[in-house]
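no rush on this but wanted to send it before i forget. theres a chain ive been looking at and ive put its sequence and its fold in token form underneath. i want to understand how the tokens follow from the sequence so walk me through it. thanks a lot i owe you, the record is right below:
>
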Amino acid sequence: MALISIVTVNYNQPQATAELLKSINLYYGQANIEIILVDNCSEKDHEADFRAVNDQIIYIRTARNLGFAGGNNVGIMRARGDYVFLVNNDTEFTSGLIETLVDTFSASPKIGMVSPRINYYDDKSIIQYAGFTPMNYYTCRNKCIGQYEADQGQHNDVIGPTGYVHGAAMMVSREALSKVGLLPENFFLYYEEMDWCEMMRRAGFDIWINTNALIYHKESLSVGRNSALKEYYMNRNRILFIRRNASWFHTLVFFVYFIIFVTPRNMLKYFKSGTPEFVPVLFRAIKWNLSNKPTSSYLGFKKTGT
């Protein structure tokens, strides 16, 4: 079996990370894998606790919080594998997960990335992700296929192209990494994996899903289900994604749509939900895009010019 590099990022969640390591040990204790654990400048260093679960991990502690993209990029640059499997630290592996994903790449040399089916950890019978539809560049909206559906096998045996991989679990080939480069770091949180998919497509690669591979996800454990941090980056990066990937005409229509429809709708939602403090957060997200370029730098794996 090819060498698989598993990369995960910890940020102040030692228990969740330890549980992930245990699930990897359960199914892949003797497999040809390396586990790269990037601690994204957590308040406390739990290296000893992680090594107590798996003493073979490659542990890297950053000097500052680099965000989702930056933390994963640190791990990617250290990875030696033929395939790099980026997984959230709040996930749990299942039997056959890695083998099924690796086998998917044999279907076509054009496959750059593949994601498994993702079910919610709290209720493993409920689907979170069984693929994405393409993006509507006028609204920056698409659909997560299967989300919140009871898993009765209706999305089994789906092996083929999808709109986007899911950032909680995505395997990328070494060839795609060498040609495309690292995750775009100016997103920090959210939308970076979708932007990466767009970069992959422009380089000639396809984005696939294999729903016969399954992983469980404890969604939004790191930033909370309803937080100012999440609200800021979801709005900021929705705009940024369009700026980086849409045509000038799509971008113009999107900005009109966002200002006229999305902004007042969100403000109304904040007041109704008792979170009026999110209003200035929304405007900070808009302001960021007016004062920052859509390009980003990379940590050195490969410059792409995007």
Observations:
- The radius of gyration is 19 Å.
